[in-house]
Design brief:
alpha/beta, seven-stranded mixed beta sheet, 12 helices, binds S-adenosylmethionine
Length: 296
C-alpha cells in the first residue's frame, strides 16, 4: 500500500487536472486539509504521518471528500469552515464563503470606529448583506465599543451568521435581522458596511463552477449593471445614517469610480458634506473597498 505522502501527491495531481486546484502548492494544501478532515488529524499531524500507510477507513473517507471537491464543491463547504480576519467562521451551502479581499472592509471600518466622535461611547455599525457574518462579527469582535446590526435578505445565510455570532460570544452586541437592504434598521448608523452582490448578470454565467453552481446566486449576481443593489442602497442611505457617518462598500473590479460617484452624490444631495473618500486596494492591487465619510 502507498504511503500517505504518495496518496496526497496523487490527490493533488488529480485536483489540478480537474481544475479544482490552481497549482502544485494549492493542490497539496487542499489534499492535506481534506485528509485532515477525513482522519481527524490536524495539518501538522498529516504532514508528520507522511511515511505511514493511511488507515483504510481514513482512505475511504478521504476519497469521498476528494470526489466532492473534484465535483467543484467549495473546499470551505467541505471543511465546514473558513478563516477570516483571524477567526474561524463556520460556513456551508446558503452563505458565501468569505474572501480575503473583504478584510479590507473590516480594516477600514475599524479605523472609522476608532476615529468616530462617539468612539468613547458606543458606535453603531451595520453590515448589510452579512452572509456568514464575516464583516459585522469581525468588527464586533475587535471593537468592544460597537453595537452591530447584521442583516441579510436570505434567512439561510443569517442562520450561518447566527452560528458564528454564538460561537464568538457576541450575542449581547450583535442584532441579526432578515430584510431587504436597510429596511430592518431602526437606529441611526455611524458606520455602514456592505459587501453586496456585484457581478453583472452577463458575467455570472462565465464564473467558475465552484462559485456559479455552488454558492448562492443571490450572494453573487448584482443585476444587469452589477451595481443595481448598491444603487438601491445609496438611495436609502440618507434616511439611516447618523450625522457623523462612514460608508464602506466592497465593489467589483472596474466599478469603483461609478460607485464612488453614487455615494458622494447621495450624501451631497442630502446636504451632508463629504469629509473623506478613500479607495482601498486589495492584495492584487484592485480598487476593492470604497470608504466615504461625512461629518467627521
Ligand atoms: C457577496 S455576499 C457577502 C457576504 C458577506 N458579507 C461576506 O462579505 O462574505 C452578499 C450577501 O448579500 C445578501 N443580499 C443580496 N441581496 C440583498 C438585499 N437586497 N438586501 C440584503 N442582503 C442582500 C446575500 O444574501 C449575501 O449574503
Amino acid at each position: 500500500m502507498s504511503d500517505l505522502r504518495t496518496v496526497l501527491q496523487d490527490a493533488a495531481s488529480m485536483l489540478i487536472a480537474g481544475h479544482a486546484a490552481e497549482d502544485a502548492d494549492d493542490g497539496r494544501l487542499q489534499a492535506e486539509l481534506l485528509y485532515g478532515k477525513a482522519s481527524g488529524l490536524d495539518r501538522a499531524q498529516v504532514i508528520a504521518a507522511g511515511a505511514d500507510a493511511p488507515a483504510p477507513a481514513h482512505l475511504e473517507a478521504f476519497r469521498a471528500l476528494l470526489e466532492r471537491r473534484a465535483d467543484h464543491e467549495p473546499l470551505a463547504y467541505i471543511l465546514g469552515r473558513r478563516e477570516f480576519y483571524g477567526r474561524t467562521f463556520l460556513v456551508g451551502p446558503g452563505c458565501l464563503v468569505p474572501r480575503p479581499e473583504t478584510e479590507e472592509s473590516v480594516e477600514a471600518a475599524l479605523a472609522a470606529v476608532r476615529e468616530h466622535p462617539q468612539a468613547q461611547r458606543l458606535v453603531r455599525v451595520a453590515d448589510i448583506g452579512t452572509g456568514s457574518g464575516a464583516i459585522g462579527l469581525s468588527i464586533a469582535a475587535h471593537a468592544p465599543n460597537t453595537k452591530v446590526w447584521c442583516t441579510d435578505v436570505s434567512s439561510e445565510a443569517l442562520q450561518w451568521a447566527g452560528k458564528n455570532m454564538r460561537r464568538f460570544g457576541l450575542e449581547d452586541r450583535v442584532v441579526l435581522q432578515t430584510g431587504d437592504l436597510l429596511e430592518a434598521i431602526d437606529e441611526p448608523i455611524d458606520v455602514l458596511c456592505a459587501n453586496l452582490p456585484y457581478v453583472p448578470t452577463l458575467d455570472y454565467e462565465g464564473l467558475p463552477p465552484q462559485i456559479r453552481d455552488r454558492e448562492p446566486r443571490i450572494a453573487v449576481e448584482g443585476g444587469t449593471t452589477g451595481i443595481e443593489i448598491i444603487e438601491r442602497l445609496c438611495d436609502q442611505m440618507d434616511a439611516h445614517l447618523s450625522e457623523h457617518a462612514a460608508v464602506i462598500l466592497e465593489v467589483g473590479a472596474g466599478q469603483m469610480a461609478w460607485v464612488e460617484d453614487l455615494v458622494v452624490t447621495a450624501l451631497t444631495d442630502a446636504g451632508r458634506p463629504v469629509t473623506k473618500t478613500e479607495q482601498h486596494r486589495d492584495l492584487r492591487g484592485i480598487r476593492r473597498c470604497l470608504e466615504v465619510r461625512t461629518g467627521f
